[in-house]
Design brief:
This protein is mostly helical and 280 residues long. The chain has 12 helices and no strands.
Length: 280
Protein backbone atom coordinates (compact mmCIF):
# COMPACT_ATOMS: atom_id res chain seq x y z
CA UNK A 1 0.00 0.00 0.00
CA UNK A 2 2.80 2.44 0.94
CA UNK A 3 4.59 1.68 -2.32
CA UNK A 4 1.40 2.31 -4.31
CA UNK A 5 0.81 5.65 -2.57
CA UNK A 6 4.42 6.65 -3.17
CA UNK A 7 4.13 5.75 -6.87
CA UNK A 8 0.93 7.78 -7.10
CA UNK A 9 2.62 10.89 -5.68
CA UNK A 10 5.56 10.43 -8.02
CA UNK A 11 3.28 10.09 -11.04
CA UNK A 12 1.38 13.25 -10.01
CA UNK A 13 4.37 15.53 -10.57
CA UNK A 14 3.77 16.12 -14.26
CA UNK A 15 -0.06 16.45 -13.95
CA UNK A 16 0.37 19.01 -11.16
CA UNK A 17 2.86 20.86 -13.35
CA UNK A 18 0.25 20.95 -16.13
CA UNK A 19 -2.33 22.28 -13.67
CA UNK A 20 0.08 24.94 -12.44
CA UNK A 21 0.85 25.96 -16.02
CA UNK A 22 -2.87 26.17 -16.76
CA UNK A 23 -3.36 28.70 -13.95
CA UNK A 24 -0.24 30.65 -14.96
CA UNK A 25 -1.26 30.76 -18.63
CA UNK A 26 -4.76 31.97 -17.73
CA UNK A 27 -3.27 34.69 -15.54
CA UNK A 28 -0.72 35.79 -18.16
CA UNK A 29 -3.33 35.89 -20.94
CA UNK A 30 -5.68 37.94 -18.76
CA UNK A 31 -2.82 40.29 -17.82
CA UNK A 32 -1.74 40.65 -21.45
CA UNK A 33 -5.24 41.40 -22.68
CA UNK A 34 -5.73 43.87 -19.81
CA UNK A 35 -2.49 45.68 -20.69
CA UNK A 36 -3.45 45.96 -24.36
CA UNK A 37 -6.93 47.16 -23.37
CA UNK A 38 -5.47 49.80 -21.06
CA UNK A 39 -3.08 51.08 -23.75
CA UNK A 40 -5.60 51.08 -26.60
CA UNK A 41 -8.31 52.79 -24.52
CA UNK A 42 -5.86 55.16 -22.84
CA UNK A 43 -6.93 54.18 -19.33
CA UNK A 44 -4.91 53.17 -16.29
CA UNK A 45 -4.44 49.58 -15.18
CA UNK A 46 -6.86 49.90 -12.26
CA UNK A 47 -9.66 50.99 -14.59
CA UNK A 48 -8.83 48.15 -16.99
CA UNK A 49 -9.03 45.64 -14.13
CA UNK A 50 -12.38 47.07 -13.03
CA UNK A 51 -13.68 46.74 -16.60
CA UNK A 52 -12.35 43.21 -17.11
CA UNK A 53 -15.28 41.38 -15.49
CA UNK A 54 -17.83 43.46 -17.44
CA UNK A 55 -15.98 43.73 -20.77
CA UNK A 56 -17.26 40.63 -22.55
CA UNK A 57 -14.94 40.89 -25.54
CA UNK A 58 -11.84 41.13 -23.35
CA UNK A 59 -13.01 38.13 -21.33
CA UNK A 60 -13.65 36.11 -24.50
CA UNK A 61 -10.27 36.92 -26.07
CA UNK A 62 -8.47 36.06 -22.84
CA UNK A 63 -10.30 32.72 -22.61
CA UNK A 64 -9.57 31.81 -26.23
CA UNK A 65 -5.89 32.68 -25.97
CA UNK A 66 -5.39 30.76 -22.72
CA UNK A 67 -7.00 27.64 -24.19
CA UNK A 68 -4.84 27.82 -27.32
CA UNK A 69 -1.63 28.26 -25.33
CA UNK A 70 -2.34 25.58 -22.73
CA UNK A 71 -3.31 23.13 -25.49
CA UNK A 72 0.03 23.69 -27.22
CA UNK A 73 1.96 23.43 -23.94
CA UNK A 74 0.28 20.16 -22.94
CA UNK A 75 0.69 18.66 -26.39
CA UNK A 76 4.42 19.20 -25.94
CA UNK A 77 4.53 18.30 -22.24
CA UNK A 78 2.78 14.93 -22.56
CA UNK A 79 3.19 13.85 -26.18
CA UNK A 80 6.84 12.85 -25.68
CA UNK A 81 5.63 9.64 -24.04
CA UNK A 82 3.40 8.74 -27.00
CA UNK A 83 0.61 7.17 -24.99
CA UNK A 84 -2.34 9.12 -26.36
CA UNK A 85 -4.66 8.05 -29.14
CA UNK A 86 -6.20 10.35 -31.75
CA UNK A 87 -7.96 7.58 -33.69
CA UNK A 88 -11.68 7.85 -34.35
CA UNK A 89 -13.82 6.33 -31.56
CA UNK A 90 -16.38 5.35 -34.20
CA UNK A 91 -14.45 2.56 -35.83
CA UNK A 92 -16.39 -0.32 -37.34
CA UNK A 93 -15.81 -2.59 -34.34
CA UNK A 94 -16.89 -0.08 -31.70
CA UNK A 95 -19.31 2.40 -33.29
CA UNK A 96 -22.46 0.98 -31.63
CA UNK A 97 -20.89 0.62 -28.18
CA UNK A 98 -19.29 4.07 -28.19
CA UNK A 99 -22.41 5.72 -29.62
CA UNK A 100 -24.55 4.19 -26.85
CA UNK A 101 -22.05 5.41 -24.22
CA UNK A 102 -22.03 8.91 -25.71
CA UNK A 103 -25.82 9.18 -25.74
CA UNK A 104 -25.93 7.79 -22.19
CA UNK A 105 -23.60 10.56 -21.03
CA UNK A 106 -26.10 13.14 -22.29
CA UNK A 107 -28.67 11.53 -20.01
CA UNK A 108 -26.12 11.86 -17.23
CA UNK A 109 -25.48 15.55 -17.92
CA UNK A 110 -29.23 16.19 -17.86
CA UNK A 111 -29.40 14.53 -14.43
CA UNK A 112 -26.48 16.69 -13.27
CA UNK A 113 -28.24 19.84 -14.48
CA UNK A 114 -31.32 18.90 -12.48
CA UNK A 115 -29.30 18.03 -9.37
CA UNK A 116 -27.32 21.28 -9.56
CA UNK A 117 -30.59 23.20 -9.45
CA UNK A 118 -32.17 20.98 -6.80
CA UNK A 119 -29.13 21.39 -4.53
CA UNK A 120 -29.29 25.19 -5.06
CA UNK A 121 -25.56 25.41 -5.64
CA UNK A 122 -24.38 29.02 -6.08
CA UNK A 123 -23.23 30.14 -9.51
CA UNK A 124 -20.87 33.06 -8.93
CA UNK A 125 -19.95 33.33 -12.63
CA UNK A 126 -23.45 33.10 -14.08
CA UNK A 127 -23.55 36.65 -15.47
CA UNK A 128 -20.12 36.39 -17.12
CA UNK A 129 -20.99 33.05 -18.71
CA UNK A 130 -24.29 34.39 -20.07
CA UNK A 131 -22.54 37.40 -21.59
CA UNK A 132 -19.90 35.18 -23.19
CA UNK A 133 -22.63 32.95 -24.66
CA UNK A 134 -24.08 36.05 -26.34
CA UNK A 135 -20.79 37.03 -28.02
CA UNK A 136 -19.36 35.25 -31.12
CA UNK A 137 -15.90 34.98 -29.58
CA UNK A 138 -17.45 33.75 -26.35
CA UNK A 139 -19.37 31.04 -28.17
CA UNK A 140 -16.13 29.93 -29.85
CA UNK A 141 -14.30 29.95 -26.51
CA UNK A 142 -17.00 28.01 -24.65
CA UNK A 143 -18.08 25.59 -27.39
CA UNK A 144 -14.71 24.82 -28.98
CA UNK A 145 -11.74 26.36 -27.19
CA UNK A 146 -12.54 25.25 -23.64
CA UNK A 147 -13.56 21.66 -24.52
CA UNK A 148 -10.45 21.02 -26.59
CA UNK A 149 -8.08 22.74 -24.16
CA UNK A 150 -9.56 21.12 -21.05
CA UNK A 151 -9.69 17.63 -22.56
CA UNK A 152 -6.08 17.93 -23.70
CA UNK A 153 -5.07 18.92 -20.16
CA UNK A 154 -7.24 16.67 -18.00
CA UNK A 155 -7.94 13.54 -20.06
CA UNK A 156 -5.24 13.42 -22.75
CA UNK A 157 -2.55 14.76 -20.44
CA UNK A 158 -3.24 14.15 -16.74
CA UNK A 159 -5.36 11.01 -16.98
CA UNK A 160 -3.30 9.52 -19.80
CA UNK A 161 -0.11 10.14 -17.84
CA UNK A 162 -1.50 8.47 -14.71
CA UNK A 163 -2.57 5.44 -16.74
CA UNK A 164 0.84 5.20 -18.38
CA UNK A 165 2.53 5.31 -14.98
CA UNK A 166 0.64 2.19 -13.91
CA UNK A 167 -2.13 3.71 -11.80
CA UNK A 168 -5.51 1.97 -11.86
CA UNK A 169 -8.14 3.37 -14.27
CA UNK A 170 -10.35 4.29 -11.30
CA UNK A 171 -7.59 6.39 -9.68
CA UNK A 172 -6.67 8.03 -13.00
CA UNK A 173 -10.30 8.89 -13.80
CA UNK A 174 -11.04 10.09 -10.25
CA UNK A 175 -7.99 12.36 -9.92
CA UNK A 176 -8.42 13.93 -13.36
CA UNK A 177 -12.13 14.48 -12.67
CA UNK A 178 -11.57 16.10 -9.26
CA UNK A 179 -8.85 18.39 -10.63
CA UNK A 180 -11.14 19.23 -13.55
CA UNK A 181 -13.89 20.25 -11.13
CA UNK A 182 -11.68 22.21 -8.73
CA UNK A 183 -10.02 24.27 -11.46
CA UNK A 184 -13.39 25.85 -12.32
CA UNK A 185 -13.49 27.52 -8.87
CA UNK A 186 -17.27 28.00 -9.08
CA UNK A 187 -19.46 25.95 -6.66
CA UNK A 188 -22.02 24.81 -9.24
CA UNK A 189 -19.31 24.07 -11.81
CA UNK A 190 -17.15 22.19 -9.30
CA UNK A 191 -19.99 19.74 -8.70
CA UNK A 192 -21.04 19.48 -12.35
CA UNK A 193 -17.53 19.35 -13.82
CA UNK A 194 -16.26 16.76 -11.30
CA UNK A 195 -19.18 14.41 -12.01
CA UNK A 196 -18.98 15.02 -15.75
CA UNK A 197 -15.22 14.46 -15.58
CA UNK A 198 -15.90 10.91 -14.40
CA UNK A 199 -17.99 10.28 -17.52
CA UNK A 200 -15.44 11.94 -19.80
CA UNK A 201 -12.66 9.89 -18.23
CA UNK A 202 -14.59 6.66 -18.65
CA UNK A 203 -15.19 7.46 -22.33
CA UNK A 204 -11.49 8.14 -22.84
CA UNK A 205 -10.41 4.98 -21.04
CA UNK A 206 -12.79 2.60 -22.80
CA UNK A 207 -12.82 4.12 -26.28
CA UNK A 208 -9.04 4.63 -26.31
CA UNK A 209 -9.59 7.91 -28.15
CA UNK A 210 -9.49 11.50 -26.91
CA UNK A 211 -11.94 12.43 -29.69
CA UNK A 212 -14.97 11.00 -27.87
CA UNK A 213 -14.64 13.11 -24.68
CA UNK A 214 -13.87 16.18 -26.81
CA UNK A 215 -17.06 15.57 -28.79
CA UNK A 216 -19.18 15.17 -25.65
CA UNK A 217 -17.63 18.26 -24.07
CA UNK A 218 -18.16 20.38 -27.21
CA UNK A 219 -21.80 19.34 -27.59
CA UNK A 220 -22.55 19.89 -23.89
CA UNK A 221 -21.08 23.40 -23.91
CA UNK A 222 -22.73 24.22 -27.24
CA UNK A 223 -26.13 23.28 -25.80
CA UNK A 224 -25.52 25.71 -22.94
CA UNK A 225 -24.76 28.47 -25.46
CA UNK A 226 -27.86 27.52 -27.46
CA UNK A 227 -30.01 27.78 -24.33
CA UNK A 228 -28.74 31.32 -23.74
CA UNK A 229 -29.31 32.21 -27.40
CA UNK A 230 -32.92 31.03 -27.22
CA UNK A 231 -33.80 32.52 -23.83
CA UNK A 232 -31.50 35.54 -23.67
CA UNK A 233 -31.24 37.15 -20.24
CA UNK A 234 -34.36 35.24 -19.20
CA UNK A 235 -32.16 32.17 -18.88
CA UNK A 236 -31.42 33.28 -15.29
CA UNK A 237 -35.09 32.80 -14.43
CA UNK A 238 -35.47 29.50 -16.29
CA UNK A 239 -36.01 26.52 -13.99
CA UNK A 240 -35.78 22.86 -14.99
CA UNK A 241 -37.43 21.94 -11.68
CA UNK A 242 -40.51 24.04 -12.43
CA UNK A 243 -40.57 22.81 -16.03
CA UNK A 244 -40.89 19.21 -14.81
CA UNK A 245 -43.52 19.92 -12.19
CA UNK A 246 -41.72 20.64 -8.94
CA UNK A 247 -39.11 19.20 -6.61
CA UNK A 248 -40.61 15.74 -6.07
CA UNK A 249 -40.89 14.93 -9.76
CA UNK A 250 -37.53 16.56 -10.49
CA UNK A 251 -35.77 14.46 -7.84
CA UNK A 252 -37.38 11.28 -9.16
CA UNK A 253 -36.38 12.18 -12.70
CA UNK A 254 -32.81 13.07 -11.69
CA UNK A 255 -32.35 9.84 -9.72
CA UNK A 256 -33.92 7.73 -12.50
CA UNK A 257 -31.64 9.26 -15.13
CA UNK A 258 -28.63 8.83 -12.83
CA UNK A 259 -29.38 5.15 -12.27
CA UNK A 260 -29.99 4.59 -15.99
CA UNK A 261 -26.76 6.36 -16.87
CA UNK A 262 -24.79 4.47 -14.21
CA UNK A 263 -26.17 1.12 -15.35
CA UNK A 264 -25.35 1.60 -19.02
CA UNK A 265 -21.91 3.04 -18.28
CA UNK A 266 -21.22 0.09 -15.98
CA UNK A 267 -21.98 -2.18 -18.94
CA UNK A 268 -19.73 -0.02 -21.11
CA UNK A 269 -16.89 -0.14 -18.59
CA UNK A 270 -17.05 -3.93 -18.15
CA UNK A 271 -17.42 -4.69 -21.84
CA UNK A 272 -14.33 -6.60 -22.98
CA UNK A 273 -14.16 -4.96 -26.37
CA UNK A 274 -12.32 -1.80 -25.47
CA UNK A 275 -9.17 0.05 -26.43
CA UNK A 276 -7.45 1.48 -23.40
CA UNK A 277 -4.94 4.27 -24.17
CA UNK A 278 -1.55 2.58 -24.29
CA UNK A 279 1.93 3.15 -25.65
CA UNK A 280 1.92 3.46 -29.43
Amino acid sequence: MIVQINNLFLSLKRPLLALFLLVVVQFLCAAGVLAISAISNNINVNEAIMNFATDTQTLCISSLLSNVFITCICLYLFNRNNYNNWKSPFRKTSIIRNSIALLTCFIGTFALDLMSELLALPNIMELQIIKMCQHPLGIAAISIGAPIGEEIVFRWGIMGHLLQKGNSPFIAILISALLFGLIHANPIQIFFASAMGMMLGLLYWRSGSIMLPILLHCVNNSLACLQVSLLGNKVRDFSLVETFGGYSIAWCLALTCSLLCSGILWWYSTNRKHNTPTTT
